[in-house]
Amino acid sequence: MMDRRYLHRLSGSLVMSSFMSMALSGVFSLLELGVSWSWLLAWGQSILIALPIAFSLDMMFGDKLRLLSGKLADMAARAWP
What we know:
Layout: H1 4-33, H2 37-79
Helix pairs in contact: 1-2
């Protein structure tokens, strides 16, 4: 059986990378093509490319980036009481 922490990390990476891939590929292809059937086709193709890249990057760098963002939030909380 897989470790719960590892499954949590995998599922978190999958959810976040899926959301970001769909949102960003949709926005940028919309800006390029406008609302059209071509846009929907390009968006679908872009998601297929962006999702594995985003997932891989999140698995490689996600923990370190979350740690960094936590430290930045702590610093900000101390600076602005």
